[in-house]
Amino acid sequence: MKRITYLLLLLIVSGCTEPLVTPKIDTSPAAVFQELWNEFNIRYATFPERHVNWDSLHSLYAPKITASMPDSILMFFCDSLLAPLGDAHVSLVALRNYGYGHDDSTYQFNFGNVSSFYLGETANESTDGYIRYGIIHDSIGYMNVITFEVGDLSRWGPAIDSVLSYLQNTKYLIIDVRANAGGSAFAGETLEARFMPQGTIVNFTQTRYDGIYTDLSSPAPTTEMYAHLPLWQKPIALLTDRSTISCGEWFTMAMRSLPNVTVIGDTTQGAFSGRLDRELSNGWQYSMSFEKISDANHICHEGVGLIPDIEIYVKENQRVDSPDTVLDRAIEFLTK
Fold first, then answer.
1. What DSSP character marks residue 20?
2. CA–CA dist 289, 309 (Å, integer)
3. Angle at the Cα of 184 (from 182 to 186), degrees rounded to 5?
């Protein structure tokens, strides 16, 4: 019996001494292109909403990939593959960042104009630096939420309360999320809590499973988690533009459901999903949207964006006589 045990042990040990061979990773242009296509094929959540036939794009570009193709040309074809998605949460990074959001932006938001021509000596900044605020015509509170990418979330709630306390005696409020590229969902919900009751359904989320394009999880409601009283219930104008993205759009989608909120400006970017960051075998990094986000009425605005109640579209090269046409319209609407 001892002899049998010894022989078995010897076989196990000798088996462990075999050299381990790491499989060689194929980083040829064709393999990298196919890997990128496959990853989006099984994980990207909103092909139907963005009216993209992913199979057709593969048929178009895969035959063009050659074994001797340099990285620069491979990147060109990968870029051509992803560009039709028009998704600001889709990117591909090698030597530079290739992004794919809408580029039909309106006249660029300039807080310097707001400060100089509207807020004057009341212009101020929150203690954490993420909100710029002031008072217009003695009756309109103004707060520009620069980002939801908040560094110290423990300071965020008190900073919001300090701003709203300063503005509490005004009759109206303008919340400006133009050029707000998103950030933390917690930061957005913390701000929303100052305006909407706890438990309010703000959106529904579905996650893409591996499978066919429409293979999504059941809609899961997202509700306002935080309680904060008293709520601000005076009239609010919410300003948006094409550079209002991601969590900036989540915030807009939640706020626009309130009866005292009117959205003014340009349509938002239309990039609602959380972003999944991954890496290809050749080291290039990419990101994609893996969720389908719908509003409280189960309407998905992915790829389209949130259309304002009052649309103000000023082209980048269009001459304007006002320092801020969108802000002027908001003031006119609130005080009419």
1. P
2. 27
3. 130
> What pLDDT, in 10s, does the model give residues 119-138?
999 999 998 889 999 999 99
φ/ψ bin of 129: left (φ > 0), alpha (ψ from -120 to 50), beta (otherwise)? left
Query: Do β-strands 124-125 and 131-136 pair in parallel, antiparallel, or remain unpaired?
Result: antiparallel
CA distance 266 to 248: 13
Tokens encoding 5: 């045990």
CA dihedral 54, 215, 272, 309 (to 10 degrees): 100
Contact status, residue 153 vs residue 187, Cβ threshold 8 Å: yes
Residue with tokens 């074809």, as numbered in its chain: 77
Burial 273-301 (b: 16+ CB within 10 A, else e): bebbeeebebebebbbbbbbbbbbeeebb
- In this prediction the pTM is 0.83
pLDDT digits (tens, 9 = 90+) for 102-122: 665 556 789 999 999 999 999
Which residues, other chains included, contact 297 with Cβ-Cβ below 8 Å and sequence gap of 6+? none
